[in-house]
Specification:
Elements: H1 2-18, H2 33-36, H3 42-51, E1 119-124, E2 139-143
Parallel strand pairs: 1-2
Amino acid sequence: MKRSIGIAALGLALVAMTATAQDMMRHVDLSSPDMVSAEMTRAEVEAALAAATTAAPADFTGKRLSGLDLSGLNLSGAIFRAARLNKTKLAGARLDRAILDQAWLLEADLTGASLKGANLFAAQMAHARLDGADLSGARVAADLTGASLVGASIAGANLGADMRNQSMGLMRAILKSAKLERLNARGADLSRVDLEFASLKGADLTGASLKGAQLGGADLTGVTATNTDFDGADLASVKLTDPVGLDQAKNFDRAKNRDRLIR
């Protein structure tokens, strides 16, 4: 009972903190055992997965799993709500439809992982590695500051602001200074997303929404912008050289600070 109450309290605390701009790092001792240790082994995680069913998926809510090597495991549909997975190795793992709301994945290695349709609401993923990962159709309102998604896919994913939860603050993906080279963002919702100083060289933004997105200082060299919606996007100091399909972009004339573009 006490554990349930503790987990519930943790979840409420995390949501409350995200209301102040999704910045929880200053409130937590990231070197504490709670953030760097694991209370389960890989074998125990595998046993929990083996015992799971479609009706009762593996549930790791609030678990400390930091630093474990869970590479290549099939974790599809598993629940990791408020779990700690800092520096955990999840390379090549399958996390399709997994629930990672309010989870901690600081510097986690998700290289080549599949997170199709996963939920990452209020997750902390600063400096995580997701090169080549597949987040197509996922719901991502996570802090990915400094993360690497080189060659990854967020096709059809929703990273935009959740306008229904304004009482909680502006919940959206934060990709400040992220490496997004060759990102497949076809049809993705990036409305109001923070992409300041991110590198999107060669990214495919076909049909994506950048409505109200913060792009200050971002590098959009060689992006494909066919049918990309720039309505209200802030383009101050954005490097936009050699774009493909910009003449077919939507509402580019309604973007902010176009006079400050670097071409």
